[in-house]
Description:
Shape of chain B: globular
Number of strands of chain A: 10
CATH superfamily of the largest domain in chain A: P-loop containing nucleotide triphosphate hydrolases
Number of strands of chain B: 0
Order of helices and strands of chain A: EEEHEEHEHHHHEHEHEEHH
Structural class of chain A: alpha/beta
Radius of gyration of chain B: 24 Å
Oligomer: heterodimer
Strand content of chain B: under 5%
Order of helices and strands of chain B: HHHHHHHHHHHHHHHHH
Number of domains of chain A: 2
Radius of gyration of chain A: 18 Å
Amino acid sequence: MPLLEVKSLTTVVSGYRILNNLDFSVEENELRVLLGPNGAGKTTLIAMITGQFKPTSGRILFNGQDITGRAPDEIFLAGISRKFQVPNMYETLSVYDNVMVSLLTERKVFRYMFKRVTPEENDRIWEILEFVDLADKANDPVDTLSHGERQWLEMGMLIASNPKLMLLDEPTTGMTEEGKRRTADLIRRIARNHTVLLVEHDMHLVRQIADKVTVMHQGQVLAEGPLAEVVQNDQVKAVYLGKGGAH
Amino acid sequence: MAMKPSARPEARGRRIRRTRMFPLWALLLGALVMALIGTSPYYGGTDSYVVQLIGKFLCFAIFALSIDLIWGFTGILSLGQAVYFGIGAYFVALSMKINYTLTHPTRYGGKIPDFMEWNGLTELPGFMEPLMSTPIAIIGALVVPTLLALFFGVITFKRHIYGVYCAVITLAESLILQDFIIEYQAYTGGFNGITDYGNIREPAFLWFIIAVTVAFFIIARFLTHSRIGTVLKSVRDNDVRAQFMGYNVANYRIFVFCVSAFMSAAAGAMYAAWVGIVSFLDTGPLFSVEAVVWTAVGGRATLIGPFVGAFLVRGLEFMLSGSWFADYWQFFIGALFIAVVLWIPDGIVGSIGNWLRKRRTGSVRQIREDADQRAHDQQRDWEPAGARKPGEEVV
C-alpha cells in the first residue's frame, strides 16, 4: 500500500478546475519529484494534502487513514510536514529555538506547559543544526540569515518534526547555482532517511537528485516514471520542456 | 522513517546561550523596589495620597502585565481587557458594599446598598445573596472573568479571528459590558458606580498586593521564557507555520487569554478593595485602551515594561492633574501612543534592551550586513540588507 494516495482529487476555484480528477501516489522511502509548468496545480496539490484548502471532491489517504479536509495541525500530527515556497519561520526566535519549537513532542497546551528541553532533545537539535550547516549560527536571530540559510533552516525544522512524508515546495527558489548545489546535496541526504515529495522547476537540480518524477499539466498527471524516460515523452516535451527538449 | 537519535560526538552536550530565567541582579533590584514600595506607609503615612496611588498603580501594573502577556508575547491585541478587570472589581465592590450596609444603614434605615434603594428595591435580590460571603465573592471575582474569557476566546480564536478583527470584537465586548452596567443600575449602581463601602487601606494589604504582583510576575516570566514561551512567541511570529507544525494555535491563544483575564480580574479585585470606589469606566474601552498605551510606552514583549509604563504614565497624569494641562489629558494619551508607535515601537524598556544588545553583539543591521558580506564572499545567495524587519506590524 502506498504511503500517500490521492484518489480522483478535484478542486474547483471560481469555475476553474485547478486539479482535475487527479490520481497520484507516493511509496514509502521514495524521493519523488513533482514537475510541471506554472499553473499546473503543483502547489495546490500540496495545499490540499496539508489541509490548507479543502478539495471539491476526491479523497486523500495517508498511511491508511483518510485525511481529506482535516485541519493542518492534525495532518501534521498524522506525519506530513511541509516546507513553504517562501522561507516561513519564526522571525524573532533564534535559529536554535526555531528547530526546538519544531521538535516532534506532545503538542497539547497543558502537557506542554512544564516541558523542558531534555539533553537528548538538545543533542538532537545540535545534530540537525550541523546537518543543515547552521550550528555556528545557533544563537543568531533568523532575520540575520541569508535567503539560502533560511531555506536550509526550514528544512532542518522539518527534519526536527520527524515526518513520515516531507513535502518540499520549490526549496531552491531565489538561490544561486552554488546554493542550489548545496541544497540538492542536502535533499539527497534527507532522502536517505525520509520519504520526500519535492516540487521543483529547475531541471538542472532535478537531474542531480531525481529517480522518479511525476509531471503534472492542467491539474492532471501527464507522465510518471524515471526521469530519463519521462523527458523522452513527446507530450512532456511539448507542454513542459519546450520544443527543444530539456535545456 | 526516522533518523537515528544517536548524536554524533560533536553534537553531544553542546549548550545554547540563553538568558537566565531569574538573573541575580534582577532579583536583587526587584526586591529592593518592592521593599521600598512596601515600606512606604511607614514613612509616608498609611492614608497619604501617594501611598494610595502606589497601591492603585500596582493594580494597574498587573493589568498592563496581563495585556503584555497576550499582546506582547502572543500577538493578540485586545482592546477590551478592562472587561475582566471590571468584573473582578465589581464582584469585590458589591460584596463589600452589601456587608458595609449591614452595619451602616442607609438614610432611610434600609439594610441594602443605597443605589438599590434609590431604584425601588426593598431587599437584596436573591442572586446577590452569595456575595455576602467574602470567600465566595473573591472566588467569583477570579473565576467568572476567567470563564468569560474562555467563552470569548473559544468563539473568537476557534474561528481564526485575530489581528484587527479581534481588537474590534474585544472592544465591542467592553462596550457591551459598560452599557450593561449603566442599564441595570438597580444592581450595579449605574452611572454613579459603587461608592461608600469603605476600603482596606492598611500596610498588610499593600504587602498582599505586592506579593500578588511578584507572584504574577514570576508566572509571566515562566510562561514567556520557558519552552511554552517559545511556542507562544512562534504563534505570535508566524501562526501559519505554527499550525503547519502541528500546534493547535487557537488553543494556545485561548489558554493565554484566560491566564491574562485571570490576572486582570485579580488586579481589579484588589483595586476595588484598596481604592474603595468602582465605576462603569473601569470596565470600559477607554480604560482598556489606556492600559494598552501603558504597555506600549513601557515596552511590550518585555515584562518590566508594563510596570514602567503604568507607573510613568499614571504618575505623569497625577503630577499634571492640578494644572491647566489636565483638561487635555486624553489628547496627550493619544498623542503619546502615536509617538511611541512611530518612534520607539519597542517602548522604553525594549529600546534600552535593544541598545544594550547592540553594544554587546552589534546591531541586527550590522549582523545582517556582515552575513551578506560573508555570503557574498562565499558566492552564496544573499538578499539585500534591511529589506524587511519582522514584527513591525503593530496589531
